[in-house]
Write a structure and sequence with these properties.
Layout (H helix, E strand, L loop, with lengths): L15 H8 L7 H8 L5 H11 L4 H14 L9
């Protein structure tokens, strides 16, 4: 019986998209990473894109990526608050 309750020969686990999904190692962005990203002078669209891309990296690789990004992009000026 499959997840839909049908007693057919459909094998859900053989779908390629399912295999890829479960073969990924999922991580999340730490508070530190999110704060660093929010301090960048980038649009919300760019922020979302970067967040999605680095979320699947191990934390050390996320840090390396952000360090390189910080060298290239200006930070927000929070002194005017």
């Amino acid at each position: 019986m499959n997840t839909l309750g049908n007693d057919d020969d459909f094998n859900f686990e053989k779908l390629e998209i399912i295999k890829r999904y479960f073969s990924r190692i999922y991580t999340i962005l730490s508070d530190e990473m999110r704060k660093k990203l929010l301090n960048l002078e980038i649009s919300k669209k760019e922020l979302k894109s970067i967040s999605k891309r680095i979320a699947f990296l191990p934390e050390e690789k996320q840090k390396d990526f952000l360090e390189e990004l910080l060298k290239e992009l200006p930070k927000k000026d929070n002194s005017s608050k």
